[in-house]
Design a protein that fits this description.
alpha/beta; Rossmann fold; six-stranded parallel β-sheet; 17 helices; elongated
């Protein structure tokens, strides 16, 4: 695979960091996950669990090795320092300053390996006025402005119903590491990568920032509820059974009139331009939903829209998606097997290479499962490793 031979020291926990190293594991990298006793990554306790095993932890940590090391002890820090020269990449997502206090910051670690690549994932980045603050996904959604534009116009701002900031930060770290590895191949230089959840979510604004700027504040992004503010028709429409999403720009609107069987709407002054359609959005929504109500099923509506090449789709729940032909046939959802949980579905690798996706078949580690093999790879004897266990420096638990 693309990352065969690349060794990664992974200090990450929860979601933002582990999601980046999970992608690297799928591409063949050797990931050594560093956890702290006695419980390890807090995601191990994430509900729902089966046989005391978290599906969330398994999803993000398959194919990784786990060493459980007390980093507060000098012997634990020494264990890590002996490991650093053998790795290509270090990834961490502690609050800024934590790694430095443990003597594991980039400046120190690259003294042990000059071409080291290190990525730090945090809520607010490694510098700036908020760098020392802790953060979780929803807080990043709020700071980035994403939450401000999500929800009903007369209601409170709401967060997206998944860890969007965490996963986007993980994907951006994954991309940054890949580019740093490419540069190292050409120049021999390492790199330090700073990824902020707020930054990556702010970068997702396609219109809200520049539109407000170029209009000198005349355009103010606000919550639009189930409709997309700049375009009409665009948003969620009530179908015979559930909700259907549709968007028609200037190049698709004529097709919509044909699908509705209402070609005369092209001559209706209310709907002549996008601006007038936005102005008369409620009237247009009523026409569309009345047409949809004449069908027996959402699938029949979608078939009619697809026949006229009107961009549309059903609002699927994640439970619906698991068995949907699109996700199954493209490998976007896949079934894995865990030693304690058994078989269950997870999202597959999001990128296809040459028509196929990486399909890692490797277990998620028990806590500290790889203390001995990793220590042995450093030339440590069985007696030395046993003493570290007896001293509480190394810890393991089959969970």
């Amino acid at each position: 695979m693309f990352l065969d031979g690349i060794r990664v020291l992974d200090f990450t926990q929860y979601l933002a960091g582990p999601s980046s190293t999970r992608l690297m594991a799928e591409l063949g990298a050797e990931i050594i996950k560093v956890e702290q006793p006695p419980y390890g990554d807090p995601m191990r306790a994430q509900s729902p669990r089966k046989n005391r095993r978290s599906g969330s932890f398994v999803q993000q940590n398959r194919g990784k090795q786990s060493i459980c090391v007390d980093l507060r002890s000098e012997a634990g820090a020494d264990f890590i320092r002996r490991l650093v020269p053998t790795v290509d990449v270090v990834v961490e997502n502690f609050t800024p300053g934590v790694m430095a206090r443990r003597g594991l910051d980039y400046e120190t670690l690259r003294g042990l390996r000059p071409d080291l690549i290190m990525a730090s994932v945090s809520g607010f980045g490694q510098d700036g006025p908020l760098a020392d603050r802790s953060s979780f996904d929803f807080i990043a959604q709020a700071y980035s402005g994403l939450m401000h534009v999500t929800g009903e116009p007369d209601g409170p701002p709401v967060f997206v119903g998944t860890g969007l900031g965490d996963t986007m930060a993980g994907v951006h770290a994954f991309a940054g590491i890949g580019h740093a590895l490419f540069r190292r191949e050409r120049t021999g230089e390492g790199a330090y990568i700073d990824v902020s959840m707020v930054d990556v979510l702010f970068h997702a604004h396609e219109n809200n920032v520049q539109a407000h700027s170029i209009t000198n504040g005349e355009y103010t992004p606000e919550r639009a509820g189930r409709h997309y503010g700049p375009v009409a028709p665009a948003g969620s429409f009530r179908g015979p059974e559930g909700w259907i999403v549709m968007l028609c720009g200037v190049n698709q609107i004529a097709s919509l009139w044909q699908a509705l069987g209402r070609p005369e709407l092209a001559d209706d002054a209310r709907f002549a331009t996008n601006e007038t359609r936005v102005e008369h959005r409620d009237a247009l929504t009523e026409i569309i939903e009345s047409w949809m109500a004449g069908f027996d099923s959402d699938e029949a509506v979608l078939t009619a829209l697809a026949h006229h090449r009107v961009p549309s789709g059903p609002v699927l729940s994640p439970a619906d998606a698991i068995n949907h032909a699109y996700f199954v046939e493209r490998g976007v959802v896949r079934e894995i097997s865990d030693r304690l949980i058994g078989n269950f579905a997870i999202p597959g690798f999001p990128i296809a290479f040459d028509g196929s996706r990486p399909n890692l078949d490797a277990p998620a580690p028990y806590l500290g499962e790889h203390n001995e093999p990793v220590g042995s790879s450093l030339g440590m004897s069985s007696d030395e490793l046993t003493r570290l266990v007896e001293d509480g420096v190394l810890f393991a638990k089959p969970r």
